[in-house]
Amino acid sequence: MIVGLVGKAGSGKSTAAERLAKSKMELISLDKLGHDALREEQESLVNSFGRGILTCGNVDRKKLSRIVFENSDLLTKLNKIVHPVIKRKALEIVGKDFSDHYIFDGALIHEIGLAEYCDKIIWFECPNEIAIERLMKRGMSKSRAESILASQQYLDSIKESVDAVVTTLGSSEETFEKLRSILFEWGIVV
Ligand SMILES: CC(C)(COP(=O)(O)OP(=O)(O)OC[C@H]1O[C@@H](n2cnc3c(N)ncnc32)[C@H](O)[C@@H]1O)[C@@H](O)C(=O)NCCC(=O)NCCS
Ligand SMILES: Nc1ncnc2c1ncn2[C@@H]1O[C@H](COP(=O)(O)OP(=O)(O)OP(=O)(O)O)[C@@H](O)[C@H]1O
């Protein structure tokens, strides 16, 4: 069974997902696969964005982030290069190391084309003001957090069609307990 955790940046998906990974669920972080994809697609990225995105010969995520989150056309261009790679990598993991249950953790599960592979999808709900505070605690600047959330505003419509919603206003512990009880109801004991 594959369970997808979606929701905007800072909503608390990864924090909860990492706790699930301590149980028998295998965690597939789409953010991390995206970072691998940047290495794999370095040549096309340099062709599209120029050598200015490199530091010491490698794609510098901070530099790329500054470019794409300020310009929606460039974000679309980046997505076109890396999303197919993320999709392929995620499906390779699921196909190869078969275990009982997988978690896809990623804000863009639908856009990447992985929603159709999920048996269940859970939306992590968090108001933008709180997400911004949390992202800033994670070391992000306020303006970067705001521009990422602005680029994800369209995701709000997804919550109408998911299988469950977890509000993450409480502590990380409370969020995890809510997630655990949903999974328990679905017969996934963690
Ligand atoms: C833009 C990049 C270089 C920034 O890297 P950086 O290490 O600074 O940030 P990180 O990857 O941790 O992303 C921070 C948050 O931004 C959001 N985000 C990332 N990529 C995107 C995107 N293409 N569109 C909207 N939001 C995004 C996510 O919520 C993510 O959790 C990197 O995020 C990237 O390559 N993104 C494209 C791949 C992708 O879509 N990844 C998200 C998969 S869910
Ligand atoms: N329920 C919670 N209560 C308080 N803080 C939380 C909670 N969940 C997560 N956090 C904190 O908020 C920050 C962002 O959480 P997290 O990285 O899990 O979000 P995310 O949804 O995975 O975001 P992204 O899409 O950017 O990866 C982290 O620093 C985390 O410690």
From TrEMBL:
GO terms for biological process: coenzyme A biosynthetic process. Pfam families: CoaE. Its EC number is 2.7.1.24. It is found in: Cytoplasm. It catalyses: 3'-dephospho-CoA + ATP = ADP + CoA + H(+). InterPro entries: Depp_CoAkinase, P-loop_NTPase. Catalyzes the phosphorylation of the 3'-hydroxyl group of dephosphocoenzyme A to form coenzyme A. This is Dephospho-CoA kinase. It comes from Mesotoga prima MesG1.Ag.4.2. The lineage of its organism: Bacteria, Thermotogati, Thermotogota, Thermotogae, Kosmotogales.
